[in-house]
Amino acid sequence: MNLSFLRNCIIELKLISKHVRCLHFLGSSRNVLMSSTNTCTNLYDFSPKLYNVERMMSQFDGAIERYKDEMVKNLAVRTRVGAVEELTITFEDEEHNLEELVDINRKPNMVLLNASAFPQIIPNILEALSKSNMNLNPQQDGTTIYIPLPKVTKEHRESLAKTAKQYFVKCKNIICDIRNEHIRDLKKKEGLPKDLTFKAESYVSALQKQYVNKAEELLKAKQKELLGES
Questions:
Q1: What backbone phi and psi angles, to 5 degrees, belong to 33?
Q2: Choice among 29-43, 73-87, 178-192 with the minimum mean pLDDT
Q3: Which residue did the predictor score with more confidence, 121 or 190?
Q4: Percentage of residues in the chain with pLDDT exceeding 70?
Q5: Where is pLDDT greater, at 122 or 7?
Q6: Distance between CA 145 and CA 81 in Å, rounded?
Q7: Ranges for the Ribosome recycling factor domain (predicted)?
Q8: What is the maximum alpha-carbon separation in the chain?
Q9: What is the mean pLDDT of residues 11-26?
Q10: What is the pTM assigned to this prediction?
Q11: d(CA 20, CA 18)
Q12: Burial level of 223, CB count in 10 A (0-12/13-18/19+)?
């Protein structure tokens, strides 16, 4: 028997066997609902032909981490002076932390900003403070900005809870965009059986739902904290 022919037959058999394992895996609802770590491990056998699992999981995880960071940084019942110092100021298409641009002096229930080094940036600082979701009411006197630290009110708590919902919607949309990106890439693959493509799409959609549920759980916990509910 021709050795080249035999070698090609063996290769074909391996490919068929691999394809069957793929279908079996994607058809398992247990594996679809596994944790992200275990999912990545089990997908490596066949994923390169379908989608980049490491990249996809990194994108999903990154969306959740950014969502958590935004809530920690911007959604505190009591305004942290540190949050004021770290506030992002955009000037001439560049972003800076507030503490890089002004001298900051802490007083009881008050923060003073000395912007004499960059007086031209004061309007940008005032705008950023007003839009910071920290319930701040900055007052300007020359190159000095006075920021009274607000008292905690029911209205402030409710406003923060609404902002938390906005962050959730943003995160949810990002997760949806990630899912759509990988589905589009999957549909561009040539030569994949339709049933495999369908089940692979279902897997990505299941992951999307899993991450959205995780984001929603974070939202509920944060809103409960912000509203002072036990």
A1: -100, 15
A2: 29-43
A3: 121
A4: 76
A5: 122
A6: 14
A7: 68-227
A8: 94
A9: 44
A10: 0.60
A11: 5
A12: buried
Give ∠ CA 26-30-33 in degrees, rounded to 5.
90
Ramachandran class of 103: left when φ > 0, alpha when ψ lies in -120 to 50, beta otherwise:
beta
Gap between the Cα atoms of 101 and 125, Å rounded: 9
Report strand pairing: 103-107 vs 110-114. antiparallel
- Rounded CA-CA distance 76/80 in Å is 7
Q: Radius of gyration of the chain from Cα atoms? A: 26
Chain segment 22-65, per-residue pLDDT in tens: 444 444 433 433 333 343 334 444 455 566 788 888 999 999 99
- Provide the CB-side half-sphere exposure for 113 (13 A, CA): 29
Residue 150 to residue 3: CA distance in whole angstroms? 82
**Residue 216: both structure tokens together:** 């929603």
| Rounded-to-integer distance, Cα 135 and Cα 137, Å | 7
Give the H or E element holding residue 89.
strand 88-91
Helices (H), strands (E): how many in the chain? 9, 6
